[in-house]
Protein: Hexosyltransferase
Organism: Strongylocentrotus purpuratus
Amino acid sequence: MNRTVGKFRQERSLRSITAVGGDQGRFVIVSSANAMILQRGNRESLLGDGVVENNNHAGWRRNMTGMPRLGRGEERLDNEKEQSWDTYKRGNYLLEPTDPHIYTRMNTPRNVCFDQQGRQYRVPMIIFVTSALGNLKRRDHIRVTYGSNQAWKILNHTLVRTVFMLGTTNDPVLQSKINAEASIYGDIVQEDFIDSYLNLTRKTVMGFKWVTEHCRHGKFAMKIDDDTMLNKARILEFILQAPSRGVVIGNVNLDMPVVRSRYGEWGKYRISKNFYPASKYPPYLSGPAFIMSTDLVEATFRAALTTPLFP
């Protein structure tokens, strides 16, 4: 499983970008007729107030050509060279252990996709949000926006449901707060692996597992980060009209270079050549948000159990 999902987006996929939020740039919107998500511009700040500004802030345009092509004192990236699929089949990352994803659920919600009598709700989409333990304000913001059932104008008891994916902590005070939050809102899924940046892959697999086991009858599942907003009208139009099997929608990143340098703003994404010798990644979905039909969610979860974690 590729933890690089969501780190980079290509310039050609971005058109007009407008700042959103109480201070300019808390979110950026890809102003395309088909845009479905809003992604926060400054991923370290808290959520804005969600007010969309009408003016176009060209300065917030992403320029992915700014990614480091040269490592400072490191090797050059051979982005010109054609790579076959055999190139991706070499490297120490293949020696990484697989994870059968056998973890204890510390919190799990009830009656999300079933009623109290165990009858299935009609669920056109289940949204699972990858969230950090301390991001209560972000979760509260989501609960009153797209995470609220009332936000989705669907008739005949059709529901779009939202749950949050969390790892665990060694801090008993923080854990008690999470337990209280889970009790109040009934939307927390928590497993007993440490909640950390390097465990984001496990957290996504955890979402796939929960959907497979607890909401497989839903039509679609959406994975979304807690610092990303979505366009409800566009997504609603899509999920009500699209076929129910074999569907995935998201931004596909092509020919994305592997970062070799530990310096600069991209340094935390550095991968050594021994670990992964190819100079580019194979195509992958950008990670802030994507939608999959639940048959593919289950298939991806099953494949993840026998795939080495990356990195």
Residues 1-34, 38-83 have pLDDT under 50 and may be disordered. The chain is about 20% helix and 20% strand.
